[in-house]
User: What shape does this take?
Amino acid sequence: MTTVAGGCVVTQPWGYGPQVTGVQALLSASTVCYGMYVNPKSGNQGSLARAGPGSAPTA
Assistant: This one.
């Protein structure tokens, strides 16, 4: 995890973990979170979560 102006960047080189709904819900408490997975077979996949636990991610 690294800090950047206005937020942080979470990276994991071994899979789609940071893009999972539960992880995004926790990271998006009182803010917005975008997760992206670069899938070598089907291409880039991403999702957006807002306002933390209980919020539904949007595609």
Notes: Helices lie at 21-27.
